[in-house]
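Deviations from the work plan: none for this task. Representative record:
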Amino acid sequence: MSSRKPPPPRVEPPNVPRERPGPAGGRRDANRRRRLAELCAAAEELFLAEGIAAVTVDQIVARAGVAKGSFYRYVRDTEELVATMIQPLADAMRAAITCAHAALESADAAATLTAIYRDLAAQLADAALAHPGLTTIYLQEARAPRVGPRRPICALSDEVERAAVTLTRAARDHGLLRTDYDLRVSALAAIGAADRILFAHLSDEFSGDPRDTVTDLVSVILDGVRSR
Amino acid sequence: MSSRKPPPPRVEPPNVPRERPGPAGGRRDANRRRRLAELCAAAEELFLAEGIAAVTVDQIVARAGVAKGSFYRYVRDTEELVATMIQPLADAMRAAITCAHAALESADAAATLTAIYRDLAAQLADAALAHPGLTTIYLQEARAPRVGPRRPICALSDEVERAAVTLTRAARDHGLLRTDYDLRVSALAAIGAADRILFAHLSDEFSGDPRDTVTDLVSVILDGVRSR
DNA sequence: GAATAACGTGACCGCTTAGTCACCATTCTA
DNA sequence: TAGAATGGTGACTAAGCGGTCACGTTATTC
């Protein structure tokens, strides 16, 4: 992990009181967000070091410096904490994918498709760089069995992969991708390759700008796919 | 998971008594191997369903139908059980890589390199098909933090990736791979892509022969890499 | 064939874990 | 400004966990 430590993510509290939540920006609202951010930051450090399934609530609250009862005031359990903490990354990924779909709607040349894919890869790399810890956890756990506290990450991964397949199919339907190669294989293979390379950058196996690495990689794979 | 359920793997007991192990093929030897195979089979089922870190010794021995004290007679802890159970897959992967290196030594044409890589991919796919449960667990956990019971899987993944980079570098040194593309990026991206596709086959997201899918994928990536 | 190491066992031990709770403090609503 | 909802707490509860143990059985060694 690079030495740059980003600020705790701005997460949306999943459980806000119904009757007297206090005004937006009020003391209660601010305290609630701060506490939740502290819990998320503590959980992130521990999940990176040990893996989600091995981290206990006691470890999280000790690292965050809050009482155990507070943990359960803000989240139902560890799974809900995971769902909460990955929201910023999930939002950024969804934004990148939405952007790519929009660009595809108005694309009209095969060369433009390459640019769209490269831009998508760059935006996903930017999302990763904005949330290096979360992305590392995401990449570590995305293929886990879909049970327990890792489930929100697996669900996000499933969603991203479905979107990638949908995007690739739309490209073919627009006549921008002419290949006999299986669309799902190419979409999932590209994700698998990009994920591994991103993971290498985030764990300092590689140096340099990951944006460059993953956009070049996407071109390489697209060229290979087109040659079929 | 396909309905075909392979027999329990033949694993080598990690802890054999020193003084009176009994003769090879004797009652004790046979019982020891059978018990260990039962523990491995039970663990595999549970690891697939819940993930390694969430499975307890009590669950494993209950599923295997052996007493808890027996568990500790045959393995030190869950980590050693994981190391033991993945040996057949590890051996098969090492054999495939060794084969590819040997083939590379006597290769003399760029087209032969494609054949070597395809053959390697096919052999790794065969290894996966011979051990579908183990491979699925491997693919689920290979990027986990390198602590705790998942460590043997992470170590195997690191070894396989180093070997892939070494193989790619040897190909370039033999003049069989001419590209300006970063060798490590191409090696790890190919593994990342192949792993995702293999995972799709093993979890029945894809039908058809995974050998065909991954060998074609390797060609696609190699073609893309060479075009740089 | 007697002796010895290895095996099989499941209760047990000490500790850990998720989640709750009752009480006091704080914030905000009417 | 009084009252009510919300927050903060850490001891507590009930259950679970890793790992051990002492004893009887079995297999093998000399």
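The two ends of chain B are 38 Å apart (CA to CA).
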